[in-house]
Amino acid sequence: MVLGLRMLPPMLRLLRDRDAKAWSRLSFALSAALLVGLLLYVLEPMLADFSTFGFHDWDVATAYRYITVVSLKAGEGPWWHPYLCGGVQGWGYSEGATNFVSPYLPLYLLFDVRVAIRLEVLGQGLLGLAGAYLFAGLFTTSAALRAFLAALFVLNGRWALQAAVGHTWHLQYALMPWAFFLFERSLGDKSLRCAAGAGAVLALQCFWGGIYPLPHTALFLSLYALVRAGVDRRTRPLLAIVIAGAVAVGLAAPKLFAALDQLQVLPRLIESTEVIGPLDLYAMLTAPDQRYGERPIVVPAYNWHEWGLYIGPVGLATLPLAFLARGSSGQALKVLGVLSLLLGFGAFHPLSPWALLHELPLFASQHVPSRFHYPMLLFFGAGFVLTVSGYVTERIARRPWLDAALLLPVALFGWDMARYSRTPFEQAFWMEAPATIRRAEPFEHRRRSPVNYVLRDWAEPVLLAMFANTGVTHCYGVDPAFRVAAEGADAPGYRGRVYVEGAGKAKLIDWSPNRAVVEISGADPGALVVYNMNHDLSWRANGAPALEHQGLVAARVEPGVRTITFRYLPRTLIPALVLFSLTLALVLVPPDRWKRLRARLSR
């Protein structure tokens, strides 16, 4: 501290003497402190008490992650989720086990899940702020303008509403500006390695469960490349997007292939006929009431958390200025902004952008098109920064202190959003678990959770049932079209965790989330042994593909065999890991080494 005080007078002299570097550093420090402070203010209701659980979708969102903890403690990967709906894919489900390949994994292994999930929300908020700040830095040197875009992208009402209700997939939009930042860098650098970096960001969106952010980022990044290629009359953007796409598929393969394998069986096709108009959007952008359950206007479906997008009158006034942006980047940003605007209006015509896009794979499984209005803020916001950057930076060059001064209106703009974005988090974490939850042994399915929150929400608890080592067959959190075959122990006609069709007995002698060891006695060869778990094509019995019996996992008794081990491992995992390894090697190995290797092989 003494050293800091000694350094203060020289710093003040530098500022007094209009030293541009000193003012730039000060502006950066102030902008970072401002953004972090506003985010902490928004999240403070959630971070103030770590003893409670979140409402709405938080129970199942946390259960998606808690299976990683349970599986790793059993010495396995989070491949199968036996606690959810009679057993579903853990790794193959797009939102399942998203903390497995994640920097947040140590938090879940070291701390209570209530602490870890809160810190993940905080971390993703910081990641989004940093990404938007860097992305804006491609168009301006002004710390104030960069802070403006970061605040617009993260502190708005939609981010808060979605995060507060437990839509953790929405947090993966934090990676969108990083993808655009790296891709734009690849267009100016001599090396295309930044394009590979953009692909790695897309892969992270896949690993982290970005069911909407990933397709949206891939769509807009591809269109950005096409516009840049057309305006600049260069093929480099097209080459960059091919590299980014190839790297994304290769690195995401372990998760992506498993998810696509599940979609073949359960495609999750959803009708989406929602329509809103310009006046509705105006209300969404300016209605300050961000309370869950409130509806400032009549919306086509669901609650306000799917529609509210408060940025206030100041934020709204800046968006049209994006149309004045020049240059190839400006043209591309305008195209993306307009497209996301039109997509967000929904199926207002049979040939509307959303009606057409919804016919394509992946997008056919999406609904609530107003979600496109969230990335619209990034594109129009970046266009605004590009528009005013020349005017602002020219004046900052003459008056270095001006950038720090401009942080005052940015702070007022950010505060206007933050004070309303805080409201959803004041409502979000209020559920309490019973003081004691008894762990049942052995594991068994029940129709409903044996444990409930002291004051519960509408959805059937899954997380607390996991604490009690109990599966729930009547549950929330998977596709409504999913057929549950497993029976609860409290269901009429329940036959046990394992049983033999016909004569003989079966006993489950060892169990873990991905494995069931069954001892058989008195059964003839060819008899069918059934494991009370939903069937999936990746289940195997003594190394061979398991059979399906009325939707359950099963196997035939082989002569002389008295033990059957049912084991689950995604059938796509091995080839996916091979592709992942090859892609990672291509990305990480320096280009000069590849040149030397090719030279040796050509001798």
* Sheet with most strands: 5 strands, antiparallel
* Oligomeric nature of the chains: single chain
The N- to C-terminal Cα distance equals 63 Å
Strand neighbour order, sheet with most strands: 8-9-15-11-12
Strand fraction equals 5-15%
Backbone structural class: alpha+beta
- What is the number of beta strands? 15
Helicity range:
40-55%
Q: What's the shape? A: globular
Poorly predicted parts: 1-5
What do these coordinates show?
This protein has 20 helices and 15 strands. The protein is of the alpha+beta class. Among the domains are: 1-30, no CATH class; 48-65 and 76-92 and 432-494, no CATH class; 498-568, no CATH class. A 5-stranded antiparallel β-sheet has the order 8-9-15-11-12, with no helix packed on it. Strands 7-10-14-13 form a 4-stranded antiparallel β-sheet, with no helix packed on it. A hairpin with a 2-residue loop joins strand 13 and strand 14 (552-556). Helix 5 packs parallel to helix 8, helix 10 (213-232) packs antiparallel against helix 11 (236-265) and helix 11 packs antiparallel against helix 19. The chain is globular. Residues 1-5 have low confidence and may be disordered.
